[in-house]
Specification:
- It is built from 3 helices and 16 strands.
- The chain has helices at residues 60-81, 106-118, 154-160, and strands at residues 2-3, 30-35, 38-46, 51-55, 93-94, 96-100, 130-135, 140-145, 163-172, 176-177, 180-182, 187-189, 196-200, 214-216, 219-221, 224-232.
- The strands form 3 sheets. The chain has an 8-stranded antiparallel beta sheet with strand order 2-3-4-13-9-16-7-6.
- The chain starts with a strand and ends in a 31-residue tail after the last strand.
- 36% of the residues are buried.
- The protein binds 2-oxoglutaric acid and fe (ii) ion.
- The site of 2-oxoglutaric acid (AKG) has 11 residues, from strand 7, strand 9, strand 14 and strand 16.
């Protein structure tokens, strides 16, 4: 991910939750999605960039189990490598992290299948392994773009395309702080455990969308755990809605991939 220069001012929007207003922007609505006799709530937080929040997509109990599974994982990882004795500390990210194959662990596999069933506009198998992030007190993820710089990630981008979308599963929220902030569009999301935030990283031209700059705000109290899938474009350019003007998918029409009823 492309890290931009770190700057404390970027945390300015981290305080209270910031959302668009559907009274002034009628496109910011909440849909009931019907799927397999279940209803899901999908709320549009922003159209450009396209950002949605699925409410309670992952059952509380499953989220808890995945947290427990990830704790064991991190211990295993420490033992295996034998050198990562302290949490990864860097200027850009102060969190513990680990990679995990999509379906290698029972509960993450369940979550993966659940996501794939519900987010059917994206082929999640193109995603990099789960990136599990555990933020302790004072932990954060500095403002960055998930979209890769093709110059410095040539091999990955050439073989799998770029990271068109990010799927962030909130497994546990911090007591205070730890919101997901998009400072350039005045969005500061305080999700619940079990919520899933999905956004597209590109403009309809396929270029990186500069408005997708985002961060995990510093944790003030408690411990936040999230699991990210960075979804690559390869093989699904044609399954995304297209624009007649350009030979690329049209993110504004992404919505039409969903079947929904009412508001
Ligand atoms: O934890 C968050 O709120 C943000 C995580 C993130 O930006 C990422 O995984 O790319
Ligand atoms: Fe990110």
């Amino acid at each position: 991910e492309e890290i931009i220069e770190f700057n404390e001012k970027m945390w300015e929007k981290c305080g209270k939750e910031l959302r668009g207003n559907s009274a002034t922007n009628p496109q910011l609505v909440c849909f009931q999605i019907k799927k397999h006799l279940l209803f899901r709530k999908m709320e549009i937080l922003s159209l450009q960039p396209f950002i949605v929040q699925y409410h309670n997509l992952v059952h509380r109990r499953l989220a808890k189990r995945a947290v427990r599974e990830s704790e064991v994982l991190q211990l295993e990882q420490l033992k295996i490598s034998g050198k990562t004795e302290t949490p990864e500390k860097s200027q850009v990210r102060a969190a513990n992290g680990t990679w995990l194959m999509h379906t290698n662990r029972l509960n993450f596999a369940r979550i993966f299948r659940n996501l794939q069933l519900n987010i059917d506009a994206l082929d999640l198998t193109t995603a990099e392994p789960w990136q599990i992030l555990s933020y302790n007190s004072d932990g954060y993820y500095a403002p960055h773009y998930d979209f890769l710089n093709p110059e410095t990630n040539r091999q990955l981008v050439d073989s799998r395309g770029n990271r068109i979308a990010t799927v962030l599963v909130i497994l546990q929220i911090a007591k205070k702080g730890g919101t997901t902030v998009f400072p350039k569009i005045n969005l500061n999301i305080r999700p619940k455990a079990g919520d899933v935030i999905v956004w597209l990283n590109t403009l309809s031209s396929g270029e990186s969308d500069p408005q997708t700059l985002h961060a995990a705000c510093p944790i003030k109290e408690g411990n936040k755990i999230g699991a990210t899938l960075w979804v690559h474009s390869k093989g699904q350019e044609l399954s995304l809605p297209c624009s007649l003007q350009e030979n690329v998918y049209e993110t504004k029409n992404f919505l039409q991939e969903y079947s929904f009823s009412g508001q």
